[in-house]
Amino acid sequence: MHVPAVPESPPTVEPARDPYLVYLDSLSGEESRRAMRGCLDRLAALVSGEEAVSGAGRPWHLLRYEHTVRLRALMIARGWSPAYVNKHLVALRRVLREAWRLGRMTAEEYQRAADLPGVEYTRLPTGRHVPSEVVGAALAACDGDDSPAGIRDAALLAVLYSTGCRRAEIAGMTLGDYDAGARSLRVRGKRDKERLVYLTTEAIGRLERWLAVRGTREGALFCPIGRYGSPRVKDGAPAAMTGQAVADILARRLAQAGAAPRTPHDFRRTFIGELLDAGVDLATAQALVGHSSPATTARYDRRPERRRREAVDRITLPPPRPL
After folding, report:
1. Angle at 105 between CA 32 and CA 57, to 5 degrees
2. Which residues are catalytic?
3. What is the pTM of this model?
């Protein structure tokens, strides 16, 4: 399969008029920019037939319906998962919209090229439930390490489990986001949306112990630990860690506890399930975890699954006996 040839265009596009760069600049989070940049670069590679190219300076404004529909078909033919294809289609529609906003496409050209249906599919939420015993074992592994790293990791796991925050949200928290009196943390989520989450008394205790080590300087709430056991500082303030560092800390403490690997998203999935199991209404759960749609939160509801399992438990397998 080949994408129909795109008409000739100037070899480069002025950065200020480049839909690729304008679209990426419109995204608020670095992780979002990295993800969408990867999508657009892969689409540019499909169009050009090259293996690894950048989408910067490409003639996105010259794409027409025959090109975009072929790109969709090519992604499906390559065996990309429906979710992966749809993610690339979102990036494609958005870069086309920026081309229209920049006056490089007419409204009709944009509407025709962007008129692509998503790939329909139904999938169960990824990840697994995290039993309380596993959380307890990971905390015990942290408590067995009385170094600053052990104290930090215990606080981080407690916050992760009692708020259901994404790993990037944990990494982005600052000391100023913490309100001890209200037992709350201000979270900056996707698309720079802020929300408040609340900590259990146990999580507060572990966080306060970490702050006694970290100090009271403004900066990242959770920071890397230096070679000599002190919190790492950048520009006079505790340095921020990455979302991947949060995942690595979780993996390391679970391994020390002898538990099977889990991800930060597994903790998020568990938090949502525990809320709904406890009878918390869907709207409140949605607000606490920062989902843009209640339908997304509902996908983590374990109650229908439990009812289906209980229904099957009513069936008794007949004992073996000869006819």
Report:
1. 55
2. 166, 190, 265, 268, 291, 300
3. 0.74
